[in-house]
Amino acid sequence: MSAANQTAGKAPPAGRMWALVAIVILVIAALATIDSFLENVEQSELRSQAQRSYAAGSRLLSVGRRSEAVEALRKAHALERKNDNYEISLIEALTAAGKADEAETLMNETLVREPNNGRANLIAARLMSKRGRVADAESYYHRAIYGEWPDNAAAHRTAARMELIDFLVANGQKEELLAELLPLEDEAGKNTSIEKRLAPLFLVASSPSRAAEAYRVLIRKDPKDATAYAGLGGAELELGDYHAAHAAFSEASHLKPGDPGLRGQLELSGTLTALDPTPRRLPSMEKYHRSLRVLELASGDLEQCVANHPEVATGKTAQLLKEAENAVAGPAPAEMTNEFAEGILELSEKIWQARIQSCGSSTAADEEPTRLIMEKLAQ
Amino acid sequence: MPKLSLRAKLLNWTGFRNREDQVFIVLSLVIGVLVGLTVVAFILLTGRLAARMYPPGSAVWRRMLVPVTGTLVSGYLLFRYFPNARGSGIPQAKFALFIQDGYISLRTILGKFLCCSITLASGIALGREGPSVHIGAGIASVLGRRFGLSKANVKALVPVGSAAALAAAFNTPIAAVLFSLEEILGDLNAPVLASVVLGSATSWMVLHLLLGDQPLFHVPAYQLVNPLEFGIYAILGVMGGLGSVCFVKLLLKLRVWFRQLPESTVWLQPVAGGLLMGLFALFRPEVLGVGYDYVDHVLTGDFAVKIVALLAIMKIVATPACYSSGNAGGIFGPSLFIGAMIGGTVGSVAHTLLPGLTGNPGAYALVGMGAVFAGIVRTPITSVIMIFEMTRDYSIIVPLMISNLISFFISQQMQREPIYEALALQEGVYLPTGESREELAGIRVSEVMHTGVEPLAIDADIDTAKQRLVHEKCNSWPVGGGNGVQGVISGHEIETAEPPPKMVRDLIKSNGDYPYVHSDHPLSYALERMGAKGVDVVPVVSRANIHQMYGVVRLTDILATYGLAGAQPPKNL
Questions:
Q1: Domain range enclosing A298
Q2: B149 close to A (CB below 8 A)
Q3: pTM of this prediction?
Q4: Domain count of chain A?
Q5: Burial (Cβ within 10 Å: 0-12, 13-18, ≥19) of residue B545
Q6: Which terminus in chain B has less CB density within 10 A, N or C?
Q7: What is the ipTM of this complex?
Q8: Residue A1 is nearest to which of B24, B34, B51, comparing CB atoms?
Q9: Which residues of chain B neighbour A41 with C-beta distances below 8 Å?
Q10: Up-side HSE of residue A6: CA atoms within 13 Å toward CB?
Q11: pLDDT over 60 at B418, yes or no
């Protein structure tokens, strides 16, 4: 400035100078007022426009018009960037619309800003789940569960955990599933709907005893609940208490007559009750006969397996089948002891193992009795 | 030594020794505040008016009627009341700086504010930043004059106002400073740097107080997927450069054409731009206005390539038409829009062809903005910093520099004259360009100095000295002895010294205060030294020893280098 200051200007008189200063101050004040007014008008208009776009986007998303929803929500987000709700909804819509890259980028920005936001973490978990990144998804689900929720936090956390549970079920992660189910037990006591969801999940998590207990609780609360009786029957089947399972299925059938599923389960539990060679006070002869029937079923399943897949037939399978045939055809010992039955059951287990090795795990309904009996014997 | 008061000490320390300096520095702050408030009002008002012109879901006919009506009204106002408020505002600010001693009238400021508000709200494809710069420079000029600053200081306030305006308009305080120095002043080392920074920072703070801390554009975090992408960014630089050249050439040609039309049609000419805008907007409403909303959308990378390519072409045609027809509005905003569209197109095509090797097309749109801006406005440094400030994404800098420099180079090769200088030239005004200043500053003393010359002996008598001056055909010559150069004597000194000297030694001061230059000094510096000491020859001396003379540089040689071979130096030298 000094370099440019070659010719001094003519300074206004002091009075005029102060008048000028006053005018400048007044102009600044006036402009600040105008700016504030205009800013308020703009904010208010943009907010209401954003709200409209958000409402439209949410509506479109709920009816499955995802691309249009993305556009509407994108507009809402652009109009009011400070609104996390709009941003998270946009991420949700982008995820639903298959725009995973953009959703992930936006999500990362949101999480950098709001790392503990429960909803944002839940959306992130869904996105990761969609992208098949199981470990990341689990991690985000946990952050969602322990994250911050502005209102009704307990319900949101439970819902997030339930979603995680569904995710774990879908991915066959039984151990992790059980770990997530246990914290929900307390919650379940207050909420019957959660309790009803929880009971069958214990079965999926390979914890039939907890499942049975959960069903008993449900039955205590509503003795007319056929589904609970059916669930209890299923849990008892897994536990190997076929008698109790049959009783539960009978009660369920009584409460819900004509249900074909229940009828099938009732028949199965009846069959198993009649087949089960393990009850303690079963007479040795009866145990022997039941063991022979189990052996017949097991060897029948292996024969069927070999017939369907001749390539799996080996000398060992033939040898086992021959032994089974001899055991079934042979005369009953004159003096019956439990050891005879145990020997037959041992052979049955070998045959069943051969069946599994040759044709894989059993899923066929007609093999269900054998499978359950064998599982019980293996315990 | 007299004891100084605290105030005097403070003034000495700050260097603000006189009233002008004090007023100047205070005015830099006041300008920052005032310009910040005015530009915020301008942006908000324009935005709200535009929202009323085009409410959500409005009828298609508005897209035709509003631009035509807007340009008609503003065209008449510009013709009848505010003829100096036409155009962008950048050339006008430069006119004021270089030709009118920093003078911009209050009427022009008001006219610019009013007419641009109408024009931009009606959806014309022009930007708000250029007008903001004009308004800012105008406010600075008015304040400087009203507070009685010298013409030189009023001039010096123009870049302060410009920087303050740009800082508020773009939310880019550093780029605003650079732009003011790089484009408005054409000198990155200008002595007003401190005031420009002060104005820009103050204005930016006002903007933040009023509107909060939101960047102009929101971009997803950039990631380089593969080094191959640098090649694609280079291609983008080429496309940006070509786009810039098309834009500038079309704008200049259309401007020439409009200027040839009869004077009586001047008030109606802006409507031509409005009409074209309306026609384009019937097909693609995104082309309306400055288009920052759509740019923001494109930066997300979610767009249809055909649409963005079409919009780039439309804007390259629409903006020159609107500008050249005499509407008030700038080309900053449109250049960013065009850049985003070209970048989006290149990025999208690259992503389709090489999906695993390229990033989000939005990143290309972002880099494209900088590339086209650098190509059109020809301020590559400002462009890089501006995009960085707008997006606050440091990782984009390297691709941005690659594209910017390529675009800048292509634009410079295919369109020699920068747009603002070319526009000024059409008005018959020769503005100093940054390049011309650099060229002149680039000539060194070493290129014109005479070597192998001897200084006049210090123990020679005055008659010998007079004969030597006649022999050398100049009015001054270095004087030396056993210790090398001791001074410079001039014919004027010989004639006017009292008592009349007998020996050369009598004219030489013992304090070594004589004019000299070094061989690596620019010629302009040699001229300054000659002017300051009233001599037409200065010795060229060693940097290690100022008494060791390498040669001399003469005024006539300097004038000849600047193309004034026949010019004679003033007689009083």
A1: 281-379
A2: yes
A3: 0.70
A4: 2
A5: exposed
A6: N
A7: 0.74
A8: B24
A9: 44, 48
A10: 5
A11: yes
